[in-house]
Structures are given as structure tokens and as C-alpha cells.
């Protein structure tokens, strides 16, 4: 362990929890907000084409992007959780080997998505919820997005590895660089070169490539683990650790993509305007939740280091600090969303039907936004301490176990209102599950602390 790594260990295990978590969370929150902002940039600029079909296509392809992100987070969290615990135990060489394995695993899986997606492009677009009018736009957008799948997956691994080492600010630089470029390229390619939705997709993968290169460079600075392909040996042991640590993320993100498909199916009978509206709301709520997720991402390296160092009291303290702080923050965001929902939806699409559908959905989701603090923070803690089964179940609950049946069944009873109610109902049920699981885990920590 060199001097910079030794200083990092001392900071992660001795700094007061509120100060440490906030310092870890701030760059994560910025990264998540920036990522969500430039995800919304495509929706914003494509909306200026004045086509519900084009706007709907962005919402349809959002699900395949969620799957790409799911794979990236699977490898990034799977390797990163292990890395943080090993660094907490000061096993730097072992942490370096896992970092290389996570990187290679992501690139390989991203290449599989690229090949499979291009081979079945049209049936995949239909499966994701494209109508006849949306299909041509969705295929144009998706074809280009798939080309960037390998380096998009690898970028997420690099960003998460930096974060789990307590160097989230380095990851923030890489994410921000790509985001700024994406926002600049969107209008140039969509309107300047008359590429339409294809221009939005091209802007996204170019910006993601720039982020990848910057993040790879950042891994060689500040006492961070260098990515050396010579350390990459995908043995059963490392694959098992990646699967155990990353399965909750794969479930959460992967079901996020599947839930978007089901959402499109549920909204489809009500026309392109309904699909476009729910796609806009999904992006807006992703932006609102990005601060929460960023805060949770700042919590994970703190829990990982201190759990590895057997400082269980600090693990509990950091969890409760994050739950209370994030609940208060989400309360403010929810109030703003309730008051200004029509204005927010109108920014992306000024079609009256889109605004009407979107306003109701956004307000209903704001009513239950605060309870996500228990769901996200509980999931983050359980995942980083390698409680795979409860973490995966909790990750699946909000976007899968509760949401998918709701969005498919509720519309048969309440029509479009059923589509709009599905997410709020699943949020409440997931929060109840999270509270029960974390109560059990915190009691387990008390027993482990008493045994020291």
C-alpha cells in the first residue's frame, strides 16, 4: 500500500460520518444529475422535431439503454463492492485483480449486446413497444446506440471502480466531460446536419466514448487502481464475486428496462401521445431520483471500507444519516413536482394530450417519492456488504415484482389512470419490504459488533 492509499484508508475509516458521506456523495450526485440531464437532452431536442412518434421512439429505446446500463452496473458494482472491502482490509493487489476482471467482463458483455441487438434489430424494436409509426424512428435510434454498447458498459465499470475506491470526484470529471459534449452535439447533429433521431443517438455514443477515455486516464491518477489487462483472469472465483456483488444492480437496472417495455405496452392502447408522455415522466423522475441514487453511491464506499475494517457502528451510522437526509431532500423535490408538473412536462413536449397524461403521472409519482429513501439506501447497504439474496429481492421489487404486474393489470380496471398509478403503488410496497429487511440486518450488525 503506497502513501496515497494509506491516507485514503485513514480518511475512510476515521473521518466523521456526515462529513465523509457528504464528501463521497457530492461528486456522485453531480455525476448522476449530469447523466440524467444529458439523457433528458435527447428527449428535449428530439421533442423539438414536433413528432410524437420521434419522441416516443426515444422512450422506447430508453429500455435498451437501461439494459446496457444494467450490464455496466452489474460488472461495476460486482467488482467494485469486492474492491472496496479488500481495500478496507488493505489487500491492494487482490483489489487490482478484481478491477481488471470487472473491466474485461463489461467489455465482453457489451459486445454480446451489440451483436445480438443488430442481428434482431426490428423484432427487438417491436418487442420494446414500438407502434407502426414509432418503429422507423426507434430502429434508426437503436441501431447507433447499440454500436456504443461495449464502451458504454466499460465506462460504467470505470466510474464505479473509482467511486468504490473513494475517488468519486475523478469519475465525476469523466462523466461531466461526456455530458457537456453530448449537449453540444445534440442540436448540431439533429438540426445542423438534419440527422433527426439518428443524430441524437450518435451524439450519445460519441460522448460516451469520450467519457470512457477520460475515465480510463483517471484510473492512473491519485493513488487509484490502474487497469492492467494482465491482471484479468476470469476464474470461477472472480466471476462468482462479480455475480454476487452485481446481481442486485443487474436486477434493478435490467428490470428497469423490462419495466419500460411493459410501460410502453400498457400505454400503447392510448396512442403515441401516451407513450411519449410516460417516456417524458420516466426521464424526469430518473432526474429526480438521481440525487437519491448519487447519495446512496456515496454511502457504498463508506460502508464497504468500514465493514471490511469491522467498524460496524460506522456502517449503521452512515445508513441512518443517509436515510434521514435523503427523505428531507425528496420531500422538497416532491413539493416542487406537484406544483409545477404541467410546466415540467411542457418543456419536453407542448402537445396538450402529452401534457395532460404526463401531468397526472408525474403528480402521482411525486406523492410517493419520499419513500424511495428507504428502498435505495437499504439496497445500497445490503449490496455492498455482500447480502446478495435480500439485496437482489429488494432491487427487483420496485421495478419488477410490484411494478410489472401493476402496469399490466391496473389498466384493465382503470384505463390510462392504471398506467399512471403503477409506479406510485410499487414504490410504497417496496418501501415496506426495505424497512423489514434493514431492521433485520441492523440487528445482525449489533450481534457482530458485540462479538468483537
TrEMBL record:
Q: Which key words tag this protein in UniProt?
A: Antibiotic resistance, Cell membrane, Membrane, Transmembrane, Transmembrane helix, Transport
Which regions form coiled coils? none
InterPro entries this protein is in? MATE_fam, MATE_MepA-like, MATE_MepA_subfamily, MdtK-like
Any keyword Membrane? Answer: yes
Q: Where are the transmembrane segments?
A: 20-41, 53-77, 98-121, 141-162, 169-191, 197-217, 319-348, 360-381, 401-419
| Chief localisation class | membrane
Q: Does the keyword RNA-binding apply?
A: no
Name where it's found. Answer: Cell membrane
The membrane topology term of the UniProt record is: Multi-pass membrane protein
Instruction: Identify its protein family.
Output: Belongs to the multi antimicrobial extrusion (MATE) (TC 2.A.66.1) family. MepA subfamily.
- Name of the protein: Multidrug export protein MepA
Q: What is the source species?
A: Dysosmobacter acutus
